[in-house]
Structure formats: structure tokens, C-alpha cells
Structure to design on (201 residues):
């Protein structure tokens, strides 16, 4: 059994939709899956400034939050964050910043990692967000398994660094088939590589 942790942040639901798809895809591959939203750290005043943000916070209120144990448990960690000024959200970074003790023990090493993101515009910083997300992976001693162009479907979503959705000017464009296929591919590929590592020791 391969353990897959989907660790992500979402304000208005796009990353959440992507995480749900990854959860389904990883389950279809026979993996044991923990889908975990990281804790919200924005003040209520900021959340209430955007009705969709408030709606999403309320919708996931009862869901479990990501913990260090989820990271230790996982063979595959799929990290997700929307783009914030071309960078990772403070919410996901805050979670990563709590992992110092696990890093010191070496328990974040030797796992497979990959990332997914969403932004309003195609050139608004998806690659820079994914690359920033991967800084921590290098420090963990993680095994970064990007999708590259390892399948023709990657020429449709077009992002070799991870999987990305463009949510559009009103932030409500549906996640298209090309991105859904790329999410399925990311889950299958990372699980396959992790299993190879396990089998070959
Ligand atoms: C403070 C802030 C900064 C943002 N910065 C960018 C950006 O640099 N480039 C971009 O294309 N979209 C940017 N966005 C838009 C989000 O990345 C986009 O709406 C994303 O799809 C939201 O994902 P979510 O629904 O999971 O929260 C920003 C949004 C906010 C609130």
C-alpha cells in the first residue's frame, strides 16, 4: 500500500477541487490517501472581505487539518497552493515552517514530492510558485517527481513543473479536462515512482 498525503491550501476552492481530483485518482491507483487542508491563518476581516473565501472556510470547517504526522506517514506528498504575487501562500508556507523538528530527524527525506497550483492568469506565476514550493523539498532530501512531458497529455496542460489551473478573471473558470487529466497523471506517476523505490529498496 502506498500512502499519499495531499497537503494544500485554498482560499476560494480552486485548489480544493484539484485536491479532490487527486484524492480520487490516487484512490483509483490503490493508494491510501489523506487529503489535508492546512490551517487558515488569515484574520477574519480578510476572509470576510471575499464572500467566496468565507464560504470555503465554512465549508471545510469540519475537515481534518494537515499535521506533521501526515507528512511522516506519507510515501508521496502532493503539495498545493494558489499563486500569491507569484509565490506560495503564507498558509502553506506556515505549515512547512512548522516541520523543523521532523526535518531535523530526517523523517521528511526519501519520499516522493510534487506540486499543484492555480492562478488567475496563465503567466501570473504558476512556475515560480511551484519552484518556490520545491525549495523545502530540496532541504527535506525529498525526491522531486515532476510530471515533465512524460505523457502526451502534458502538452495539453503544458506545465512540466507540476499541474496548474488558470481560474480566470472572475476566478471561477471550471477546471478543464486537460488539467483533470494532468492531475490523474500526476497521481499515477508519483505513486508508480514511489512503488519502484520501495521494490528496489
Ligand atoms: C493576494 C492575492 C494575490 C494573488 N496573486 C496572484 C498572482 O500573482 N498571479 C495570478 O495569476 N493570480 C494571483 N491571485 C489569484 C489566485 O492565485 C487565484 O484566484 C487562485 O486560483 C485561487 O485559488 P483558490 O481558489 O484555491 O484559493 C492572487 C490572489 C490573491 C488573493
Amino acid at each position: 500500500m502506498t500512502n499519499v498525503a495531499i497537503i494544500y491550501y485554498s482560499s476560494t476552492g480552486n485548489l480544493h477541487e484539484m485536491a479532490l481530483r487527486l484524492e480520487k485518482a490516487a484512490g483509483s491507483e490503490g493508494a491510501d490517501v489523506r487529503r489535508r487542508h492546512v490551517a487558515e491563518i488569515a484574520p477574519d476581516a480578510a476572509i470576510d472581505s471575499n464572500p467566496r473565501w468565507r464560504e470555503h472556510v465554512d465549508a471545510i470547517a469540519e475537515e481534518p487539518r494537515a499535521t506533521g504526522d501526515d507528512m511522516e506517514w506519507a510515501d508521496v506528498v502532493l503539495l498545493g497552493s494558489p499563486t500569491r504575487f507569484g509565490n506560495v501562500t503564507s498558509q502553506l508556507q506556515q505549515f512547512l515552517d512548522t516541520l523543523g523538528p521532523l526535518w531535523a530527524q530526517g523523517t521528511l527525506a526519501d519520499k516522493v514530492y510534487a506540486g499543484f497550483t492555480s492562478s488567475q492568469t496563465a503567466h501570473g506565476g504558476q512556475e515560480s510558485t511551484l519552484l518556490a514550493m520545491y525549495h523545502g523539498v530540496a532541504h527535506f532530501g525529498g525526491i522531486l517527481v515532476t510530471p515533465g512531458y512524460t505523457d502526451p497529455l502534458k502538452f495539453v496542460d503544458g506545465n512540466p513543473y507540476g499541474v496548474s489551473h488558470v481560474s480566470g478573471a472572475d476566478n471561477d473558470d471550471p477546471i478543464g479536462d486537460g488539467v483533470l487529466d494532468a492531475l490523474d497523471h500526476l497521481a499515477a506517476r508519483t505513486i508508480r515512482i514511489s512503488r519502484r523505490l520501495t521494490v528496489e529498496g
Observations:
- The chain is about 45% helix and 15% strand.
- The first strand starts at residue 3 and ends at 8.
- Residues 88 and 133 are 6 Å apart (CA to CA).
- The mean pLDDT is 97.
